[in-house]
Amino acid sequence: MIRKNAVVLYKNQCALVTDVEGDKYAIQYCPSAAATGKKSYVSLKVREKDIVPLHAGPASSLDALLSFSDGALSAQLSEAYELLRSDPVTASSSVPFADIAELMRPSFSADESFAVYKTISESDEFALDAASFKSGTLAFVPRSEEEIAALKQKAYEKAHEGELRAAFIKRLKQKRLELPGDSKYMSEVESLALGQTDKSKAMAEAGFSQTPEKAHKLLIDTGVWPLTRNPYPTRYGLSMTSASEGLAVPPEEERLFVQSRAYAIDNAWSEDPDDAIAWDGEYLWVHVADPASSVMPDSSIDKTARERGTTLYLPEGTSRMLAETSLADYALGLNERSRALSFRILFDDKGGISDCAVFKTFVNVERLTYEKADALKDSPELKPLFDIAKRNIERRKRAGACSVDLPEVHISVDEETKKVSIEPEIRYESGDTVREMMLLAGEGAARFAFKNNIPFPYVSQEAPAIPSDLPPGLAGDFRLLRCMRKRSVGITPAPHAAIGVSMYSQVTSPLRRYGDLIAHEQLRAFMAGRPLIDKDDMLMRISEGDIASIAARKASRCSETHWKLVYLLQNPEWTGEAVCVDKKDKQIQLYIPSLDMQTFIVPQKKYELNDTLEVKAMNIDIPQQTVVFVPL
User: Fold this and answer.
1) Which partner from 112, 117, 373, 479 sits 20 to 30 angstroms from 291, CA to CA?
2) 3-state secondary structure of 623
3) Cα–Cα dist 241/317, whole Å
4) What is the pTM of this model?
């Protein structure tokens, strides 16, 4: 019970209870004293929840409360702090205000109470117990020595802010920072390097150009970032972690059990098998992971996948479009029986697609590496698939298909040491077989959607203007690459000239491509008789997903270049073979297959197309992503 002449806090200011009227308290306080030094008393009525008791009273007057002063209070508080910290029970526990005050000044009076409170609340030794304060009681927690030191350092830095900032800028100009202390000043430089802002006050003050590349270089030169730091995913607005919301357990629903064993064939390091193939003697089956069984259009998972566009594969790790936990239930071949959305393809006499049907299925899937599949290519189970692939390649070529087949490399980064390894991708015949099966599934799905008038994400590409004097070898591949047109994704089917088909869609990677996922959502809606996504909405979703995918491809390409340059710095004695793939004026364009990199040089002697020469790397610039290759 709060009585008349008790001392309370009102809005953290000293107040004197002048009367008690039922459930209300008349108080007097001085709101302007702290700000102006002039005392102007205000009286008002408040409820008990609006005030916090400080002393039961009686206090002689508000003026006496506000004017009380004793130079011994700080020393007395320090003694109380030492006593509380020396006792394990109270060392870091919440202690009522009255108990601390009693330690400081036994039997402290009401007129002293506000001065004691101010001494405690403004000290470094104690922190207000906010939870207690909200409940209407007053308590404090003794701070640790580390916390007190941090507070004093912060107060010092605030008092000497200009002086400390000037000293930092001087060190920054010289690129001789005092780490880790100076790191806090470099956050804006990091934001610029990561593309999160376009300005850095620190860089401007130190006289540096304000670009992401310059910021990146400055962070490396000052030791804030290691050479291995990869800024590109963040710079392109991408997450470095996989989606967090897990998919629901696959629903129980009627599915066709496919008797023939299917094979999920992929790289040895693949962790997300999302397609498998089989031949039952009459039909080609392409089984595809079925996350759309639980991912509904415009659900939170669907929207997240659309924002990501695709799974981001980086040499240092993978950021998945769907949650990591989804693989256990939805990837193929990880369980004894896999759920799939399956495309059953019937061929005509010429090897073209006569019919494509779509089923929800249960499938027995066996995982194989490309190497193992090649070893089994003449087996009764796999030989028909290899034969179908060969026929389809010939069919597509007759239809004008053209593709650029450049060497590829696999880059891996040790998580702890950041040691980079680059190995050539081995070309397996089974890899070509899988590619053809995926193309057939995409063509079949597009035909199915068109036949049933389903708004669908069709992928098309105009025919390239191929020159008649196309050179052989890698030089020809590069010339052809420059002739290729950009692909288009839309809701109207059109020929995909590079593949050599009249209509095409991508449907075989719904775990890692949003376009494939939305295609599955639409197919499942059609099969269930649910409303379809209309054409305008489908076009909007396709566009949003494609924009995100483009950003992911750019980030992936820049990331791979980053790690290739790190590799060259880690291996200063590296040399490699380069191939002359183009000649223009005084320059020649070189392609380095072992790195999958290109460069231009002014040669000291004459080179013909497809000639080879040995080169070494010099002047490697990580932030600018440049390297000079010179002939040996």
Assistant:
1) 373
2) coil
3) 9
4) 0.79
